[in-house]
Each structure stands twice: as structure tokens, then as C-alpha cells.
Amino acid sequence: MKLHIIDAGHFKLDGGAMFSVVPKVLWEKLIPADSNNHIPLAMRCLLIETEDRRILIDCGMGDKQDTRWQGFYYRHGEGDLIGSLDKAGFGAETITDVIPSHLHFDHCGGAVQWNQRRDGYELTFPNATYWAHREHWEWAMRPNPREKATFLTENLQPIQQSGHLQFLDEKKQAFGPFIEFLVMDGHTEKMLLPKIQLGQQTVVFTADLIPTVAHVPVNYLMSYDVRPLQTMLEKEAFLRQAVQENWILVSDHDATHEALTVQETEKGFRVKESGKLSEFI
Predict the structure, then answer these.
(1) 3-class secondary structure, 234
(2) Is 132 in contact with 84 (CB distance < 8 Å)?
(3) Would you say residue 201 has pLDDT above 90?
(4) What's the pLDDT tens digit per position in 181-200?
(5) In the sheet that 97-99 helps form, which strands lie side by side, from edge to edge?
(6) From CA 82, how far away is CA 95, in angstroms rounded?
């Protein structure tokens, strides 16, 4: 098995929204904001290559929306989902499985693209099975007012109509013993965190449980979490296990650091080491 970091681009969000009740004087030491109070964020995906499968975790936001909508999120940098896959040696047609950690637009948007005539949508990965947790899929298809703006119809309906959608919770052995899916409910209902056994090492894609290295402390939460107290409980349990079993964590949104390990200190959980994933595996 091999793991590949796939760069789907960078964007920006309001720093206050990304850190909720944590004062700016604290979080800005970790991720400096620009003059508009925005901080840079990555849309990092993970490709799991096995002998017979190419499994893509997350897909970025894609480019289906118009320029005005894209402008809300300040897309920047050279990262591109398909370009990054090509650079790693994989065409879109070679992807066998697509697993968004959850269906917020910045994690699943790249899974669907315009067709050649630009009068409709098609799957970006035509030969892939698209996977979700059934309860999360139903949550996204009937969104609550808080999350409605991030569950986009153009990202979901083409997948549903394609016949390529399957549910991980109903086919738990679909990926054998080397991938387990941790389920979290604080950020959104039934978010999936792939836990990958790579030889003697364990690699976990943290999705939006710990979106950046700066979010390792248990009380550093996003205002986007639908159940923030639940997130804190989930993070604490997750980080304790990560320390005990020396997990390598892959960050989806940290603009600088691809991967990290954590430690427990007198002040709580903190980053132990961070850098490129290739430095850890």
C-alpha cells in the first residue's frame, strides 16, 4: 500500500469562524490572518493506492460554481485536484473509490464536474464507486438551516442519480482489514475519519475533527461544528488514543503541515511533530 497527498487547492475562511470562542490574540499566533481577518486553508486529499484499488479520500470544492461564488472563498495557489492526481501518475478514470469524509462542499465538490457541453453535470471519476455513511447522506439531502449553505444540490444529486453510490455502514468489509472508519458526530452527523494500517504504522485522516495543526487543543473548535460539546468529547478520546498508539494524523485544511503526531502535556494535548507525510512514513 502507498499513500499520496493530493492537493485540491487553497482557499480562505474567516479566522474567527475557524476558531469560534477562542480569542484572536491566541489563534493568530498560530495562523496569522490577513487584513480581512481571513486565514489560508488547504483542501488536502489522500489517495490510498493498493494493488487493485485507488481510493480517494476527499475531493476539494471543485470549480462548478460561478466566479462570484468562488470569490467568497478566495481560491488561490496552484493546487488542482485532477492536476495533482495526474502529477502523482493517476488519471481520473483509474480511481476505483471516492470517499468524502463528509459532504460539505469543500470536501466533496470535486467529485462532480461539468460535462463537456457545460449543460449538466457528470461524475469526475466515472469508474469509481462513491461512498458515504447512509445517515450522513440523508442528513445532507434534508439539510438543517445551519448547514444548508454547505450541502449543495449540484454536488449531491449527480452522485445519487449515477447509480454509483454505496453506503459504508452497510458494507463494512468493503475495504478489508486495512481501513477502518471512525465516525464522528460533533462537526456534522456521521463524519468519517479513515484509519489506515500501513505496515506497523497507523495513519488517520482527521477531516474536520482537527482541521489544522492549530486545532489540536481540545477547546480549539470551529463555529461550523453543529455540536461543539460533542466535538470536544470526540477530540479528547481521539487524541488520547492517538497518543497511546502513536498515530500519524493527516490534516485536511492546514495550509503548511500535511501530517502531525500529538503528545499529552501538562497543558493538554499538543503537537509533537509536524511536516510532510513522507517524513513520517
Answers:
(1) helix
(2) no
(3) yes
(4) 999 999 999 999 999 999 99
(5) 2-14, 38-49, 54-57, 97-99, 129-132, 165-167
(6) 11
**Which region, left, alpha or beta, applies to residue 60 given φ > 0 means left and ψ of -120 to 50 means alpha?**
left
The three-class DSSP label of residue 108 is helix
The answer to whether the CB of 7 falls within 8 A of the CB of 84 is yes
At 249, give phi and psi (nearest 5°): -105, 135
Q: Which helix (H) or strand (E) holds 128?
A: none
Say if residues 259 and 277 touch (Cβ distance below 8 Å). Answer: yes
Say if pTM beats, i.e. exceeds, 0.85: yes
Residues in CB range of 251: below 8 A, 6 or more apart: 42, 44, 206, 210, 211, 212, 213, 257, 258, 259, 260
Say how many Å lie between the first and final Cα of the chain, rounded. Answer: 11
**Crossing angle (nearest 10°) for helices 153-162 and 134-141:** 130
Q: Which residues contact 230 (CB under 8 A, 6 or more apart)?
A: 185, 186
Q: Cell 476558531 maps to which residue?
A: 19
* Alpha-carbon span 137 to 6, nearest angstrom: 24
Question: Residue 229: how many CA atoms within 13 Å on its side-chain side?
Answer: 0
pLDDT exceeds 90 at position 277: yes
Note the pLDDT tens digit of each residue in 68-100. 998 899 998 888 999 999 999 999 999 999 999
Phi, psi of 35 (to 5 degrees): -65, -20
Task: Report the alpha-carbon angle 64-169-82, nearest 5.
Answer: 30
Q: String of b and e for 254-267 (b: at least 16 CB within 10 Å)?
A: bbebbbbbbeeeee
Smallest CA-to-CA distance from 53 within 21, 97, 89 is with 97
| 141 Cβ neighbours under 8 A, 6+ residues apart | 151, 156, 160
